[in-house]
């Protein structure tokens, strides 16, 4: 039976873990992480800047892309400081309150990104199946409401899960498995009944990710049905090509997400390197690859990047 008196010591210290067995070369391992974070930050900030400053990109598809960039950074940036503090041998310690805040941002933006991908699937459905209503269905005000609703849905669902952590005594080892805090990692250290957190967390994943993935699947069923009615082969390919970047973004988020969940629940005795590798893929691959994919596959974004970085004379030639 859990004692529902909040622990008097909410500043309990936990210890983060780098890459076990490779502590001697942590400084060298930090170099590729620096590159990944730099690419992710520069790529997503570039997308945000281009969408904000280029009037041609003030359309629903690009507003949703800007949301995707924000959620990508919101999911990965909270881990930056703690990761490099470990890899640069500054400190492995993290306080309970800091840990909970970090968990909140990581998990909230993870669920938010899933909701944004659902909204982007709906955007593609309207653009392909009801193009005449596109601008009236997805107005800027409605898009803003969708973004706020996606964040609030995720944040409010996380509050009960994280709030209960304050009632748990942590009398086991305080060593976490990663260089940042994850809910499923912390509850295994609690010496109390964590059944609620385990069940609630599992239900949350099934309901939120399940609803979003089902919505994405249904949207693409309708999109494919509509595309197959198009007589011209070129027009069919053109319509499908507008969805290619979004399909890649869905796979980039969901495959590592599902893989990490499976590893934590069914491969608890696997090598620590497996857990660490999956966790880093889950947090770093989407922010790094999404801007690259959209830059390569989307002509307007590619044009915006060229206009931003190319000299004026090159810009005038391209224009």
What order do the helices and strands come in, and which of them pair?
Blueprint: E1 13-15, H1 26-53, H2 60-76, H3 80-87, E2 93-95, H4 96-129, H5 134-137, H6 140-163, H7 183-186, H8 195-227, H9 233-266, H10 272-297, H11 299-309, H12 312-318
Antiparallel strand pairs: 1-2
Helix pairs in contact: 1-2, 1-3, 1-10, 1-11, 2-4, 2-10, 4-6, 4-8, 4-9, 9-10, 10-11
List keywords for this structure.
319 residues; Rhopdopsin 7-helix transmembrane proteins; two-stranded antiparallel sheet; 12 helices; globular; disordered N terminus
Cα shape:
globular
Q: Helicity range of the residues? A: over 70%
Q: Quickly give the structural class.
A: mainly alpha
Annotated CATH topology? Rhopdopsin 7-helix transmembrane proteins
What Rg do the Cα atoms give?
22 Å
List the helices and strands in order: EHHHEHHHHHHHHH
Supply the CATH class: Mainly Alpha
How does the major sheet shape up?
2 strands, antiparallel
Counted up, domains total: 1
Overall pLDDT = 86
**Overall number of strands:** 2
Going by CATH, the architecture would be Up-down Bundle
Question: Beta-sheet strand percentage?
Answer: under 5%
Poorly predicted segments: 1-10
**What count of helical segments does DSSP give?**
12
Q: Please give the alpha-carbon distance between the first and last residues.
A: 70 Å
Strand neighbour order, sheet with most strands: 1-2
């Amino acid at each position: 039976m859990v004692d529902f008196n909040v622990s008097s010591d909410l500043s309990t210290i936990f210890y983060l873990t780098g890459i076990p067995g490779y502590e001697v070369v942590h400084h060298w391992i930090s170099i590729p992480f620096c590159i990944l974070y730099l690419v992710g930050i520069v790529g997503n900030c570039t997308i945000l800047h281009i969408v904000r400053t280029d009037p041609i990109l003030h359309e629903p598809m690009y507003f949703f892309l800007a949301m995707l960039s924000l959620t990508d950074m919101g999911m990965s940036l909270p881990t930056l400081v703690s990761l490099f503090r470990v890899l640069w041998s500054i400190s492995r310690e993290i306080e309970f309150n800091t840990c909970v805040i970090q968990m909140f941002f990581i998990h909230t933006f993870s669920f938010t990104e899933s909701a944004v991908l659902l909204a982007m699937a709906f955007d593609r459905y309207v653009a392909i199946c009801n193009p005449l209503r596109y601008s009236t269905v997805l107005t800027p005000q409605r898009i803003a409401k969708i973004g706020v609703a996606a964040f609030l849905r995720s944040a409010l669902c996380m509050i009960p899960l994280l709030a209960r952590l304050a009632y748990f005594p942590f009398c086991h080892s305080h060593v976490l498995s990663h260089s940042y805090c994850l809910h499923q990692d912390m509850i295994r250290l609690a010496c109390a009944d964590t059944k609620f957190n385990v069940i609630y967390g599992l239900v949350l994943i099934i309901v939120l990710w399940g609803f979003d993935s089902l919505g994405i699947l249904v949207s693409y069923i309708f999109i494919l049905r509509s595309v197959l009615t198009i007589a011209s082969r070129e027009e069919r390919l053109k319509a499908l090509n507008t969805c290619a970047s979004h399909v890649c973004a869905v796979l980039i988020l969901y495959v590592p997400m599902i893989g990490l969940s499976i590893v934590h629940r069914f491969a608890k005795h696997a090598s620590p390197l497996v857990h660490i590798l999956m966790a880093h893929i889950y947090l770093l691959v989407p922010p790094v690859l999404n801007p690259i994919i959209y830059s390569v596959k989307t002509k307007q974004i590619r044009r915006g990047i060229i206009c931003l970085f190319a000299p004026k004379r090159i810009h005038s030639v391209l224009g």
